Design the sequence.
């Protein structure tokens, strides 16, 4: 039987975890009432409207989003809880002539109802940021040129679903580790970098730049060009359970960066100017992401045609047509019409996108992270994207809107 550190077997460790969590969650010995789930963000309000009310709907090349919709359908109809909602529109999509852009537009207008998304406080605008898939340079072997590891999930990281304790806490998970017979928080970034975590033999690859590795953890996925000439893709596997803290905010609070320059590029420039202080700055964010190597898609498949990183829906993300959302507000996989502006510009960015990803910092009903794609140019746009936007959920006809 496989054991955890200290010779504690897995079954015993889970009993210890559950016992510790009961004490932690209830907070009072002898309490018999399950806790009330912590409040989430302001909930979403969905108001039915028309396609003509969507700013830019007629000007958008809706057919460009078709590959993302089709690959998303494959995932949605395979999910028992989503199948009833998505079976009809996904089946109807089989008959659409993808070469006819107007036929694609008519398909959405005939099979979906648009709902304006607002918050319970009446707000109709929210923050839109951007992310991308970076390219790093690395090696399977650690060296002076490639010193920074990208780790797979450590064996001593415990992930406990709180729904095992209380069904009303569905979707809430706790991450930690065993310290003897106690469950304690998992190591923060500084301690992992110092070698205290159980990461022996867990390095997938080593990359050249610690700042690149840091931003890869924020993006959640990327490609690594290896020194043998091959290129691999890595994706999010797990996280240490520590809260995310923005290092940009740290620099702003210190007066070392202005809000206008607090972008990914601004942080890189600060790091080049302060190399000795860079490790301590990165350690200000205790959150740490672990990765897995993502196999290439099958040749000729829908996934291969998109060739993007894998999002939370389990499908590749199409550049310019995918967003990350808060799934407590916007159903994962749904089409969304997004109206915002381009990075550092008043030029409109209004288009059909698919809600196929999530993110730790994406919280609230009107909150989106726009996927710009792969490479340096996409990274430039993603690093500068911070705009207000509006959202409309496209929901299958006949299906009750979320929360109804």
Sequence:
């Amino acid at each position: 039987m496989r054991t955890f550190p200290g010779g504690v077997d897995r079954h015993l460790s889970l009993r210890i975890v559950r016992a510790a969590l009961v004490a932690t969650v209830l907070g009072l010995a002898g309490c018999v009432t399950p806790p009330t789930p912590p409040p989430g963000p302001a909930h979403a309000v969905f108001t039915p409207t028309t396609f003509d009310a969507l700013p830019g709907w007629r000007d958008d090349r809706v057919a460009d989003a078709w590959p993302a919709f089709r690959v998303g359908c494959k995932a949605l109809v395979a999910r028992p809880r989503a199948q009833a909602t998505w079976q009809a529109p996904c089946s109807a999509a089989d008959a659409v002539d993808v070469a006819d852009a107007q036929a694609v537009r008519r398909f959405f207008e005939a099979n979906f109802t648009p709902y304006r998304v607002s918050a319970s406080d009446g707000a109709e605008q929210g923050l839109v940021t951007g992310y991308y898939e970076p390219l790093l340079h690395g090696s399977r072997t650690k060296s002076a040129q490639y010193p920074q590891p990208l780790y797979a999930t450590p064996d001593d990281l415990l992930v406990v679903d709180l729904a095992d304790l209380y069904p009303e806490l569905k979707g809430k998970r706790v991450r930690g580790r065993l310290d003897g017979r106690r469950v304690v928080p998992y190591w923060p970034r500084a301690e992992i970098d110092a070698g205290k975590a159980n990461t022996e033999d867990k390095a997938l690859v080593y990359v050249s730049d610690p700042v690149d590795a840091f931003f890869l953890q924020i993006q959640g996925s990327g490609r690594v060009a290896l020194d043998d000439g091959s290129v691999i893709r890595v994706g999010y596997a797990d996280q240490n359970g520590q809260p995310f803290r923005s290092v940009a905010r740290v620099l702003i609070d210190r007066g070392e960066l202005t809000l206008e320059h607090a972008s990914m590029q601004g942080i890189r420039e600060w790091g080049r100017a302060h190399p000795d202080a860079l490790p301590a700055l990165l350690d200000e964010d205790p959150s740490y992401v672990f990765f897995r190597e993502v196999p290439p898609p099958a040749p000729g498949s829908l996934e291969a045609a998109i060739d993007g990183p894998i999002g939370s829906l389990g499908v590749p993300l199409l550049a310019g047509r995918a967003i990350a959302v808060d799934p407590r507000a916007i159903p994962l996989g749904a089409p969304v019409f997004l109206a915002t502006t381009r990075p550092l510009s008043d030029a409109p960015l209004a288009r059909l996108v698919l809600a196929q990803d999530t993110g730790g910092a994406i919280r609230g009903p009107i909150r989106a992270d726009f996927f710009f794609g792969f490479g340096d140019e996409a990274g430039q746009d993603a690093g500068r994207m911070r705009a207000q936007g509006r959202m409309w959920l496209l929901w299958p006809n006949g299906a009750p809107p979320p929360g109804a």
